[in-house]
Amino acid sequence: MSLDLDATAAQIEALAAQLRSEGQGSAARLAAIVAAAQASDYAGINSKAEASAGLTFFSPAEPLEPLGARHDPPPLPPDFRVLAVDGSHIDVDRHLPARCYLINLGACVLTYGSRPDAVLSSRPRLYASEDELYLADPASPTNRMAVEGPILGLVRTVQEAEHLAEIAAQQNDTLPTLALIDGSLILWQLAGRDFQGEQRFVRERLLRQGFLRALDTLQSLSHPDGSGLALAAYISLPRSTEVMSTLRLALCPYDRADCRGVCAQEHPGERPCDPVQGFVDREVFAHTLGPGQRSALFRTRSSIVRDEYGPHQVCFFYLNAGEEMARVEMPAWVAEDPERLALVHALTLDQARRGQGYPTAVQEAHEQAVVSGADRELFRQLLEEALEGQGLAVYTSEKRLSKLRRIV
Amino acid sequence: MSRFGEIIESSSTVFTAQCYHLYEGPPLGALVWAGTGPRTIGVVCNITTGTLDPGRRIVPRGAQEESEEEVYQSHPQLARLLATHIQAVIVGHMEGEAVRQYLPPAPPRIHAFVYACTPEETAAFTHHFDFLRLVTDAKDIAADEVLAACLRSAAACHPDPADFLLRAGKALALELTDDVPRLNAILRRVRP
Fold first, then answer.
1. Are residues A229 and A245 located together in one domain of the fold?
2. Do A111 and B76 touch (CB under 8 A)?
3. What domain range is A34 assigned to?
4. 3-state DSSP call for residue A164?
5. How far is CA B42 from the centre of its chain?
């Protein structure tokens, strides 16, 4: 039986009505938040954040300039380049006759200005050996984790960053260059407690020896004239609330924001900082930023970044990219260099405009990487044929066969 | 121009080539050749340009640009995502110097390189007019327009273009004795 759309539609209608009634009161709250943001003293907020370390239920971003700051887009350089890499994968599937996974990396190098050019490429790789299928703890090789599901997603993210560094290294001129990552620079999935005990080696391998090492390479690719490569991560429709948490500090009337002490007995919605409840950062910036403008610069205070990222502490701003409010993240070595920061602002905006809402280079890298449903089926067929060609048994699960047969 | 693309579809009567560079293919009616051994000769009967990925839609990009050229400069990926294809109706083949104005025993292979015929090759191939019927009889192409374009461009490769067109007109008259209006329509299109 297919989905009962009549029954589902009635529930969707009810949801829409509920959202509308909730939205009616939110406009006034949002206006109050925007006013609070513009009036707040960012140095004071940062002092309060330090005084409140470990006492809050939220993780506020550190503003590096006044919260209400707005910056018009800098001019584009006459000639420049944008690089992007994206990936797609075919996960380990126990219904397949062999244990393996495939990662397809798509890359895009776009050169603009007096000598426009485009290079699009893809690189599929199949992984099936024991050390590719499992991450093992070097201190205790029997302690290992299978590379599949979310871990495979992280392995792919690491490979994307490494490939981006490879491609950046191949550019042998001094054009101002932006390397773009799709999504966040923060590997949140590794932040949890799961990766702090016995599984600590997974974090070590994927983050320190993988992703951050690729960022080290990107940082080292400085041009002789000092202009260097800029690196940024572009997040479309961000759901982050780090700046909202910063505003909680601004709204907090106490000397120290002590959620666990002073406000522990309050109900949700009754605390002085609760006007921000339910809003995400981009909703506030949608009210304050004009077309093309970027917000103040912030630094994340998330623990994984503070503990692991070293010189790549993650900074970000919000960008009014025209069609939407994007979050643009960059490592501190980019944010602290006014030239590279300006390049990130100008080029992410320009990319979003050229791409009619979303950066062209990331779109094209994605198009190179994507593995369609038809491709997945072909991959399975090729795998079966290859195994048969070697005289190996080809089998699949009855469950998979039953889905194909769909008998009545 | 000479070599400009490769065959991506091939049959006994027509072949399709993808040009190496966007918009850089021979014009309608031009003679082209492909294949080794016997060289298959075709007349360009259709030119198309579109996206290489049928799942992606082409959208306008030039609202803020001054010229078409600027659209391509501002979006350099377009040259990689779009492609020009030419379709050629097969009108014969050449084995060494020998010209055969009938279909070759086998069509050119996929990935065969495709070349634009030089003026000398064009003049040599169009010395006789048996190939005209292969164009007039071809289905699903604008045969009369293709033939007229072919004769106009071939005329320029002969030392006496007027004499060439006169001979071509006579040969065509024999092919289209039953369809004088069609003959006249083609002749009007090749008149100098």
1. no
2. yes
3. 8-69+241-279
4. helix
5. 6
Q: Is B79 on the interface with A (CB under 8 A)?
A: yes
Cα–Cα distance for residue pair A188/A192, rounded to 1 Å:
8
Domain assignment present for A92: yes
Report residues of chain A scoring pLDDT below 70.
Answer: 1, 23-25, 223-227
ipTM over 0.90: no
- Do residue A127 and residue A65 come from a single domain? no
- Does residue A294 sit in helix, strand or coil? strand
The reply to whether A253 and A291 lie within a common domain is no
Contact B168, B156 (CB under 8 A): no
Is residue A74 included in any domain, yes or no?
no
Model pLDDT for residues A121-138, shown as the tens digit of each residue = 999 999 999 999 999 999
Q: Which of B72, B84, B71 is nearest to B21 (CA)?
A: B84
Q: Whole-model pTM above 0.90?
A: no
- Choose among B22, B83, B20: nearest CA to B54: B83
- B51 at A interface, C-beta within 8 A: no
Answer yes or no: do B75 and A364 touch at CB < 8 A: no
**Whether A392 and A347 share a structural domain:** no
How many secondary structure helices (H) and strands (E) does chain B include? 7, 7
B27 in Cβ contact with B153 (< 8 Å): yes
Domain ranges of chain B: 3-190
Q: Which of A121, A323, A351, A360 to mutate to test the interface with B (most CBs of B within 10 A)?
A: A360
B-facing residues of A in 96-155 (CB < 8 A) are: 108, 110-112, 116-120
- Say yes or no: A317 and A245 in one domain: no
Size of interface A-B (CB pairs under 8 A): 31
Averaged pLDDT of chain B: 94
* Interface mutation target, options B77, B78, B80, B81, chain A, most CBs of A under 10 Å: B77
Which residues of chain A have a CB within 8 Å of the CB of B74? 112, 116, 354
Q: What is the pLDDT of residues B96-149, one digit of tens each?
A: 889 999 999 999 999 999 999 999 999 999 999 999 999 999 999 999 999 999
The reply to whether A289 and A346 lie within a common domain is yes
> pLDDT tens-digit profile of A320-370?
999 899 999 999 999 999 999 999 999 999 999 999 999 999 999 999 999
CB distance A360–B77 less than 8 Å?
yes
Q: How many domains does chain A have?
A: 3
Distance from CA of B28 to the nearest CA of A (A): 29
| Residue written as token pair 């390049």 | A343
Whether A360 and B80 lie within 8 Å, measured CB to CB: no
Chain A, nearest residue to B80 by Cα = A118
A198 and A112 belong to one structural domain: yes
